[in-house]
Design goal:
By secondary structure, the protein is α+β, with helices and mostly antiparallel strands. It folds into 2 domains: 1-22 and 82-129, no CATH class; 31-80, N-terminal domain of TfIIb (Single Sheet), CATH 2.20.25. The chain is 19% helix and 50% strand. The strands form 2 sheets. It has a 4-stranded antiparallel beta sheet, covered by helices on one side. A 3-stranded antiparallel beta sheet has the order 1-7-6. The radius of gyration is 18 Å and the shape is globular.
Length: 129
C-alpha cells in the first residue's frame, strides 16, 4: 500500500501530498475513448469503469515523433476509488497525524474537464514523536 511505503520513507514532520479521483470522477472521466494530438505527439486512452466495484482503468497508447519515425508506447493504469473516511483511516493507521483535503477543481481553473466533486487533493503530515 502506498501510504505505508510513504510513511516508512518520510521523516517525522514530513508531508505526503497526493490527489485521488472520487466516485463522480470515475463516472465522468473513466469512460469512453479520448484522443489528443499535438505536434510530434499523439495519445489515445480507452477508459472503463466498473461502478459496483469502484474500479477504473485506462489503456493508454501514445506515439512520440523521433525524427522521421514514430515511437509507440503502451501503459495500463488501474485505479481504486477510495472514500474520504477510508483514506483518513489508512493515513492515521500508517502514522500520519494531520490530514487536510481540498476539492481539486479550483486548482485547475480554466480546465473545463476538472469540475467540483470529481477529484480531491490531500496533504498529510507524518506524526512527530
Amino acid at each position: 500500500m502506498v501510504a505505508k511505503a510513504v510513511g516508512r520513507a518520510l521523516r517525522p514532520g514530513g508531508h505526503f501530498f497526493f490527489d485521488v479521483n472520487n466516485s463522480l470522477g470515475f463516472q465522468r472521466y473513466w469512460s469512453g475513448t479520448v484522443w489528443l494530438e499535438k505536434p510530434g505527439f499523439v495519445i489515445v486512452m480507452r477508459n472503463g469503469h466498473n461502478r459496483p466495484a469502484d474500479r477504473a482503468w485506462t489503456d493508454v497508447e501514445w506515439f512520440i515523433r523521433d525524427g522521421s519515425h514514430w515511437q509507440r508506447c503502451h501503459e495500463r493504469v488501474e485505479e481504486v476509488c477510495w472514500d474520504s473516511d477510508g483514506i483518513r483511516r489508512v493515513l492515521k493507521e500508517t502514522g500520519f497525524d494531520q490530514v487536510r483535503a481540498w476539492d481539486a477543481a479550483p486548482f485547475f481553473k480554466g480546465n473545463a474537464v476538472i469540475v467540483p466533486g470529481c477529484r480531491t487533493i490531500y496533504l498529510a503530515r507524518k506524526a512527530v514523536g
